[in-house]
Amino acid sequence: MEGIDEPDPIRFEELTGYQDQRQQVVENTEKFLAGFPANNLLLYGDRGTGKSSTVKALLNQYGELGLRLVEVPKSSLGDFPKIITLLRQQPQRFIIFVDDLSFEESEVEYKELKAVLEGGLASRPANVLIYATSNRRHLVRERFSDRDMGDDLHGNDTIQEKLSLADRFGVTIFFTTPDRALYLRIVREMARHMGLELAEGELERRALLWASWHNGLSGRTARQFIDNLSGELHLNEKL
Q1: What is the pLDDT of residues 175-206, one digit of tens each?
Q2: What pLDDT is stored for residue 238 in this prediction?
Q3: Rg of the chain over CA atoms, in angstroms?
Q4: Is 31 in a helix, a strand, or coil?
Q5: From residue 118, how far is each of 93, 122, 163, 167 by CA, in Å?
């Protein structure tokens, strides 16, 4: 494992909306840090809704209390047993972070994750939790053709195995696409946080226009719009 010299500085104060979802993440993490039972979490929902930012903000909120994030790409899930063994020996508390988790039907790495979440011979240490994000509720792609059992005598068992991965997470938290009102509130809060001075009506008009030209309504779109607007305003100040 390698350390990160400059981790993402995102903090909860910079995140607007989805308070109920983030509160569930915070409460679960605080129980974990206090040494009480806590759950592995799956944050799933539409792209750009702040799932990954929510997990990253935990490090900046609780790092001084001994929380550490270990980001593991999907391609390294086979190394989970080694990672767990290494972390078990450390005094800190670790959240293993798997971002954008999903599997195609031909991929079998999900079985490694299932074993760690529940049912492996070696128990998960008390100082380790797993938080994952995904755009899919069912993490392993299933096709209608999968329901054609063919010559598979236990075809239903195969389907249930694919669907059961998400169930191994103790808590599943849903982040849905923001409506227009929430999108504009996110934009206004980001603009205020960055000290951008623009009439509210003009800010909202341009934010909606940006969303229609780019990736639709989402927290990520709001961030991209504000970054672009900030650069534009600061450049104009120098001209």
Answers
A1: 999 999 999 999 999 999 999 989 999 999 99
A2: 79
A3: 21
A4: helix
A5: 19, 10, 15, 10
Residue 237 neighbours by CB under 8 Å, 6+ apart = none
For residues 71 and 100, the answer to whether their CB atoms sit within 8 Å is no
H helices within the chain, ranges in order?
A: 19-33, 51-62, 80-88, 110-117, 155-163, 180-193, 200-213, 219-238
Tokens at 193, concatenated: 């946080």
170's torsion region: left (phi>0), alpha (psi -120 to 50) or beta?
Answer: alpha
Q: How many CA atoms lie within 13 A of 204 on its CB side?
A: 9
Tokens of 212: 């229609």
Q: Give the residue, 117 or 74, on which the prediction is more confident.
A: 74
The encoded tokens of residue 57 equal 């903000």
| pLDDT per position as a tens digit, 81-135 | 888 889 998 999 999 999 988 766 656 666 667 666 765 555 678 999 999 998 8
230 and 203 Cβ atoms separated by less than 8 Å: no
Distance CA 166, CA 113 (A): 10
Q: Count CA within 13 A, CB hemisphere, residue 82.
A: 6
Spatial contact of 129 and 105, defined as CB atoms under 8 Å apart: no
Cα–Cα nearest to 137, from 169, 109, 107 = 169
Selection from 88, 86, 136 nearest residue 110 by Cα = 136
